[in-house]
Amino acid sequence: MNRRLSTALAAIFIIGLATPAIGAEICGIEATASNGGMMVKTGAFSAECMPKGKCSISLSSVDNVAIALERASVSGSWLALVKSTSSIDSGAGFDLVFDGEDETRIAPDFLIAAEDMKSVRVDDDVSDIVLTTMLRSKTMNATVQLIGGKKIVHEVALGDLATATKWVDCAQAK
After folding, report:
1. pLDDT, tens digit, for every residue of 109-156?
2. Among candidates 15, 29, 57, 85, which has minimal Cα distance to 156?
3. pTM for the full predicted model
4. Phi, psi of 36, rounded to the nearest 5 degrees
5. What are the tens digits of pLDDT across the range 134-147?
6. Nearest to 29 by CA among 44, 52, 47, 17
7. What's the pLDDT score for residue 7?
């Protein structure tokens, strides 16, 4: 076998060891390879981590409007964000209702929109409050308004969110 072929096969073998096999258990949950990283399903949520990088938890997707949590590192803050194929009206704010209680409004002052308005994230301090409230709640209804006035309502059962965040904590620490 020539030297280049041996080196190539060794590299493929090493890369294969760094990527979790389909069905491998990572941090106590069966994970699959995904986009160069690893992904798990916990109830209605999927959590994905890239090697030595960002992790995200998909919370809900309705009419091409997705709500997610992202974190750049295990020591970083979680960020709540909304992504859409249409432009989001960040000036309308976001309305949240936890466990059927009173409405909580995230004012536009606490939203940071991408230039194309198809991605809006909640600032760091408010994201921390939202995540803490989500972890203490059973349900969340989130209303997002698109440019043009269409309102998209997400109804999210939060029961498995603690499991998803704990898995990300473990996976990002590896």
Report:
1. 999 999 999 999 999 999 999 999 999 999 999 999 999 999 999 999
2. 57
3. 0.83
4. 85, -5
5. 999 999 999 999 99
6. 47
7. 37
Q: Give residues with Cβ within 8 angstroms of 16, minimum separation 6.
A: none
Q: Tell me, letter by letter, the H, E, C secondary structure of the chain.
A: CCHHHHHHHHHHHHHHHHCCCCCEEECCEEEEEECCEEEEEECCEEEEECCCCCEEEEEEEECCEEEEEEECCCCCCCEEEEEECCCECHHHCEEEEECCCCEEEECHHHEEECCCCCEEEECHHHHHHHHHHHHHCCEEEEEEEECCCCEEEEEEECCCHHHHHHHHHHHHHC
Tokens standing for residue 78: 């979680």
Q: In the structure encoding, which two tokens stand for residue 130, read together?
A: 């939202």
Cβ neighbours for 111, distance < 8 A, ≥ 6 positions apart: 90, 93, 94, 120, 121, 122, 123
In which order are the strands placed within the sheet that holds 139-145? 103-106, 94-98, 139-145, 151-157
> Which letter, b or e, does each residue of 102-121 get, where b requires 16 or more Cβ atoms within 10 Å of its Cβ?
eeeebeeebbebeeebbbbb
Portion of the chain with pLDDT greater than 70, in percent:
87
Q: What are phi and psi of 93, to 5 degrees?
A: 70, 180
